[in-house]
Design brief:
By secondary structure, this protein is α+β, with helices and mostly antiparallel strands. The chain is built from four helices and six strands, in the order βαββββαβαα. Strand 2 and strand 3 form a beta hairpin. It is elongated and about 70 Å long.
């Protein structure tokens, strides 16, 4: 069975599937996170059947079902200090949780299919890991942009939060644009994820 892929298969759009294949080395690797993996079950004994099951059972992201998904929860413990008539953000301690959802076959696979599946899912994991790195980069950039920020004439420490939200909005948009551009490249014909899917579907 040979399948030719377009940029949307089983509703899996480049913008919807949070995948990435090469983890960049980053100075922000020290950002700590609690990482968890969740799975959803799929059926099938061939690569094509497994991929079809992903299309039927993959997690919903908006209106689309996706192969895999990485989400995160980020909260902060911030110490605002009044200095005269000004307000200073003295410290900000992040608490980051990254959760990745992956498919998991339930059937016992033949050796050739198992090997093909292992190649596929390892690539998906690497892809997801980069989106996790993007999140860590986001946290590091937030720290750089906000810790030590001083807002003049703000004894109640209210203006500083407005300024922080302005800065954080720009940083968050930057991360989303990176995710979107990377996914679009990966799902282009010849891209890494495109190649992974073709190899799985057209394999044993």
């Amino acid at each position: 069975m040979t399948v030719t892929l377009t940029k949307t298969i089983w509703g899996f759009t480049a913008a919807a599937i949070n995948l990435t294949l090469a983890m960049p080395l980053s100075a922000t690797a020290e950002v700590k996170a609690t990482e968890t993996v969740e799975t959803y079950t799929i059926s099938g004994k061939t690569g094509a059947e497994l991929y079809a099951s992903i299309g039927e059972r993959g997690p919903l992201l908006g209106a689309n079902r996706v192969i895999a998904h990485t989400r995160f929860k980020l909260t902060w413990r911030r110490d605002y200090q009044r200095q005269g008539n000004d307000c200073l953000l003295a410290t900000a301690i992040p608490r980051l949780t990254i959760t990745t959802t992956l498919p998991k076959p339930t059937a016992k696979l033949s050796a050739p299919v198992r090997a093909s599946w292992t190649t596929f899912i390892d690539g998906v994991r690497r892809h997801e890991a980069v989106h996790g790195q993007y999140v860590r980069d986001l946290v590091a950039k937030i720290e750089t942009a906000t810790i030590g920020l001083k807002q003049p004439d703000d004894p109640g420490c209210t203006k500083i939060k407005t300024e922080m939200n302005r800065r954080l909005g720009a940083i968050s948009n930057e991360r989303r644009n990176l995710d979107r551009a990377f996914d679009q490249a990966e799902f282009t014909e010849g891209g890494a994820v495109h190649t992974l899917i073709l190899a799985l579907v057209n394999g044993p």
